[in-house]
Design a protein that fits this description.
globular; 55% helix; 2 domains; two-stranded antiparallel sheet; mainly alpha; 14 helices; two-stranded antiparallel ribbon
Length: 319
C-alpha cells in the first residue's frame, strides 16, 4: 500500500499518521508512537515542476484495489463523532494519492472505472456525515471539487469504452447528484436502455421538481432504496425545501387557512418539527404563538434570508 522508499523516508523523518501506528488513540506525542510499516498507506504529494514521479513509487491496479478496500474499512469502524474527523482526513488524502497513481499510469478505462466506483460512495456519504457532525476544518468546497473530479474521470472513462460496463447504482447516483442541472435530463436519455427502470426513478424526481410538486418529490426521495442515491440527493434537499415553502406561502395564504406542522413536516420529509420551525423562522416573520399550526396569511418574507447559505437543519432528513 506504500512504496518502500516512502516508508523509509517517513520513518526516518517521523512523518507517521496516527492510523499507521499500533495505538492511534493513545494520548502520546507523535515521536513516541510505534509505527507499523504494514499499515502505512502512500500519502498524496504534489509533484514539483522539475521533479518526475519515480516509476517504482507507482502502485499496480491490484495494489490500488487493496489500498481502497483497506481505507474503506475505517469508514465503518470509526463512526464515533470524535474519531471520524481523523479517519475522514486520512482516507481523503490517501484516496487522492490513489487517483494520482491512476492518472500517472494511465490505467485502462475499465480499471479506472472499477477503482472510482469504489471511491465515489465514500465522498457522497462523507459529505453527509461531515455536514451532519459539523466536522472540524471540513472544507465543503474542496470536498465537492474532489467528488466532481471523481465523477468526471469516471464518466470520461465510461464514455471511452465501446462495451459499457458500469454500476447502475452509480450511474443513477451520478444523475441524482446533478439533478439541478437541466442538461443532465437530456444526457440520461442516452442511457435509458442500460438503466431500464432506474431511468423512470430519475424522471419521476426530476419532473416533480419541474412542475413544482414538492410533496411528491420528497415522498419519492424518502423511498429511494439505495443509500448512495439518498446521499447523492442530499445537497439539493435544502434548496428544494426552500422552493416548496415559497410555493406553500403563496398557495395557502388565505385568511382562514392553517396548516398542521405535523402535516407540513411530513410533506417535506423533515426528521422533526423543530427543524421545520427553524426553516420557517429563517424565511418568514410568523406568529410565534401559533402552536402546532402554520398560518401564511400576511406573512412577511425576511429580507436578510439567503437561500444560497442555508443552515444544516434545512437538510435534516432521515437517510
Amino acid at each position: 500500500m506504500c512504496p518502500e522508499s516512502e516508508i523509509h523516508f517517513r520513518l526516518k523523518n517521523n512523518i507517521i499518521h496516527p492510523l499507521e501506528t499500533d495505538n492511534p488513540w493513545e494520548a502520546k506525542p507523535a515521536r513516541r508512537r510505534k509505527p507499523i510499516p504494514e499499515l502505512m498507506v502512500k500519502e498524496y504529494t504534489r509533484p514539483a515542476a522539475d521533479k518526475h514521479i519515480h516509476p517504482d513509487s507507482l502502485r499496480s491496479f491490484s495494489a490500488l484495489k487493496k489500498t481502497i478496500s483497506y481505507l474503506l474499512s475505517f469508514k465503518s469502524e470509526f463512526t464515533n463523532s470524535a474519531r471520524w474527523p481523523i479517519a475522514y482526513y486520512f482516507i481523503k488524502d490517501r484516496f487522492r494519492a490513489v487517483r494520482q497513481d491512476l492518472i500517472v499510469q494511465r490505467l485502462p478505462a475499465s480499471q479506472s472505472i472499477e477503482l472510482l466506483e469504489e471511491m465515489i460512495p465514500f465522498y457522497l456519504e462523507s459529505e453527509y456525515r461531515c455536514e451532519l457532525q459539523q466536522t472540524p476544518n471540513y472544507d465543503r468546497k474542496l470536498h465537492k471539487t474532489e467528488l466532481e473530479e471523481c465523477f468526471s474521470r469516471w464518466k470520461s472513462a465510461l464514455d471511452s469504452l465501446e462495451e459499457k460496463k458500469f454500476s447502475r447504482d452509480m450511474m443513477l447516483a451520478y444523475f441524482l447528484h446533478h439533478i439541478d442541472d437541466s442538461s443532465f435530463r437530456y444526457e440520461i436519455l442516452k442511457w435509458e436502455t442500460a438503466l431500464s427502470d432506474l431511468t423512470s426513478t430519475f424522471n419521476d424526481l426530476y419532473f416533480s421538481i419541474c412542475i413544482g410538486n414538492y410533496v411528491r418529490f420528497f415522498r419519492l426521495a424518502r423511498s429511494l432504496q439505495e443509500s448512495i442515491w439518498r446521499y447523492a440527493l442530499f445537497p439539493h434537499i435544502g434548496m428544494y425545501r426552500c422552493h416548496a415553502l415559497k410555493a406553500f406561502s403563496a398557495a395557502f395564504c388565505g385568511k382562514s387557512i392553517t396548516l398542521p406542522t405535523s402535516e407540513l413536516s411530513e410533506w417535506l420529509a423533515f426528521s422533526n418539527e423543530d427543524s421545520l420551525w427553524d426553516c420557517l423562522n429563517d424565511m418568514f416573520e410568523l406568529d410565534p404563538n401559533s402552536g402546532s399550526t402554520v398560518k401564511f396569511y400576511k406573512c412577511v418574507h425576511r429580507v436578510n434570508f439567503n437561500e444560497n447559505h442555508l443552515k444544516l437543519y434545512w437538510f435534516s432528513i432521515s437517510l
